[in-house]
Amino acid sequence: MANENSQVSFFTQGKIGIIEINYPPVNALSQQVRQGLVEGVDKFNQDADIKAIVIRCKERTFIAGADIKEFGKPPTVPFLPDVVNHIEASEKPVIASLFGTSLGGGFEVALACHYRVAQKGAKVGLPEVNLGLIPGAGGTQRLPRVVGVGKALAMVTQGTHVKVEDFVDTNLIDEIFEIEVNLNEQTLQYVESLIESGSIEVKRLGFQTVEAGSLDWDAEIAKISKKARGKEAPLVAADVIRKTAELPILEGMKIEREAFLQLRESEQSAALRYVFGAEKSSAKHELNAQPVNVESVGIVGAGNMGSGIATAFLNAGYTVNLVEQTEDALRAGISRITKNFESNVKRGRMTQEKADNLLAGLTSSTEYASFSNCDLVIEAIFEDIEVKKSLFTQLDKVVKPDCILATNTSYLDIDQIASVVVDPGRVIGMHFFSPAHIMKLLEVVKAEKSSDIALATAMTVGKKLRKMSVLVGVCFGFAGNRMYTRYGREIQQMLLEGASIEQIDKAMTNWGMAMGPLAVQDLSGIDIGHNARSAQPFPEHDPGYFRAAASMVEQGRLGRKTSKGFYIYDEAGKASSDPEATRLIKSKAQDLGIAQKSFTDNEIVERALLALISEGLALYKEGIVQRLSDIDVIWLHGYGFPRHKGGPIFQARQKDLADLSGKFDELRASSSELIWPAVDLTLID
Ligand code: 3HC
Asked: What is the residue range of 592's domain?
C-alpha cells in the first residue's frame, strides 16, 4: 500500500482509517514511525470515505517515547513537534488507542490526538527528566491544558508513570476498557459508535487555555529543587511550564523546544542516557544455560542481612524458609521481616491483604534438613570462612541435587567455600547490599567452578527481585567493595593529610553523593570494615592505610551504635562535630609523620574519583567485571553515586585523558606505585 513503511502500516475498516505502528520492542518514534504518522494522517484526510483515524500499536505497548537510539545522531525530518502538531491539525478526528506504557514522545502523540482511549492498567507519563531532558514535543503544553498545571507539573518534574484510571476526573482519557477485552476491537467499536451518533468531533487540546489554579509557584519550585538533588531537568521543566502557562501553544512549544535542545547537549543528559543503556546491558550475559526454575528459597541467618534478603524474596512472591540456630534468633528475624512489611503498608506501598498473603509464604526452622525442597539456598551468616565452609558441607548433604547454593559474603573467597561441596559448580555468590529489600544492587559472583546454570539462575532471580544484577568475578570485596575500599582508603588518607571530617563529607554530598563517606562509616559501623581488613595482611607499603578508622575503633568509637564515631550523636540521633575525633586523627597523622595541608572541596572530590577510576579500570582489566559500564551500575545502585553524574567511568570519559594521566602520575610520584599503580587509560578511550 502506498506510503507505508516497514514500521507503520495503514488499513481501513469501514469509515475508520487505521495507522498501525509495529516497531519492536517499544514502538519508539524512529524517523520511519514519525514519517508514517504524518503520511497516514495525510492519506486518510484525503480519503472522502474516512470519517476518523485511529493510531494504534502492535506488540507490547503504545509508543514508549522518542527513539533513544537516535539521540546523539543528527536529527532527521519530520521533527517530532511538527508531527504532533500535524496530528492535532488533522481535519478528521484522530483517536489514540493506549496500552502498556505511553511515555515521552508517545504520550505527546496521544495528547495531540483528539480522543484517547485506553486499556485499564495502561500507564502514561513524561519521564524525560529521567534522561536529563524535558518533554520536547508539546508535553509541557498540552498536559497542563487537560489535567491542570498542578498535576502536570508533578508528572513532568518527577517523570512518573501514572495509571490511566487515575485521570477519571479529567478529560485526559475518553474511555477505559476492561483488561480482558480486545483493545483493537473495542477501540473500533467505540469510534464507530461516535461516528454513527454524529457526536464525533475534532477536539484540539492545544486550543484550550490552561487552568493555572492557585499554585504557589515559589513553594513548588523550592520543593522541586530539593527533590532534584542537583539534577537540572526538573527545574528547567518547571520553569518552562511556569513561563508558558498563559502563552498560545505554538509560542509555548517554541520555548519548550529550545530548552529541550539545550538540555539534550548537557553532560547530565548524556550521563542519564548512558545510564539507561548501562543498566540494560548489565542484565545481559552470555551464559549458555537454562536457569533452574526457582520457587522455594532457603535462607540461613535471620540477622539484618538475612531478614532483608528474606523480605526481598517474599516481596517478589517466592516462598522462603528461614533457618537460624535458635528459636530466639528466628523470632527476632521474623519480627524484622514483619516490620518491613508493616512499613510497606504504612507507606501505602501495599495493602495489608497483600502483605499478609506474601508473609504467608514464610516458614522457619532450626534444622538445615528443612531445606530439602528448596531450589536455591542463600547463606547470610557472619563473615568467618571456617564457619561458612562447615555450613556449606552440611547444606550439601541435605539439599536437592540441583539446588543452587549461594553465599552472601561481602569479602570472603567463594572458591574456598565452594571447595567443600561435592559439586562446586552449584556454588555462587549472591552479594546483596544492606538493607537488602531496598538496595537495588545485586552482585552475582562467579567463582572459579560456578556453573552457567547456577549463574543464569541467580541472574534470572535477580531480575524477578527487580534488582540491578551485575555478574562479577572473585577477588577481595568483588567489584563494589574492592572499589569502596580504595575509595575509603583515599578518604582516610585525606583525613590524615589535614582535610576535616566535615569538609570531606560536605564536599562529597555537595557533589552529589547520597551520603558523606564518613557519615556512612558511622552508620554501618566503623568496626565492620576494620574487622574485614584485619583479616588481611596490613599493607606495609601504605602506612596510613585506614589508620584514622583504626583510631576510632581503638577508642570504642564504632559509629552510631556507640553514639560516637567520626561524629558524635545525641539521643535523637542527630550528628555533630566532635573535636575529640579530630584530635585522634591529628595525633595519628603526627605519629605517622604526615605533613598537614589544606584541601579545596574540588581536590577532595577529584582524589576520591581518581581512586574509583583507577580501581574500576583495574577490575575491568582483570576481567572481574564484563564491561566498564558495569562499574558505573554498581556504584550508582550500591553506593549512592549520583545518577546524573553517570558513574566513575562515565566521569573519567568526560575528562581530558592527558590531564587525567598527569594527575595519576602526580599521585604515584607523591606516594608509591603500589598505592597508585599504572592505569590503562586506553580502556576508556
Ligand atoms: N527508544 C528506544 N528503545 C527503547 C526505548 C526508547 N524510548 N525505551 C525502551 N527501549 C528498549 C530498551 O533499550 C530495551 O531494549 P533491549 O531489549 O535491546 O535491551 C527494550 O526497549 C525493552 O526495554 P526494557 O527492558 O526497559 O523493558 P521494560 O518492559 O522493563 O520497560 C519501558 C519498558 C517502560 C518502555 C522502559 O524501557 C522505559 O522506561 N523506556 C524509556 C522511556 C522513555 O524515557 N521515554 C521518553 C524518551 S525521551 C522523549 O520521548 C523525548 C520527547 O519528549 C521529545
From this structure: 481-623+655-684
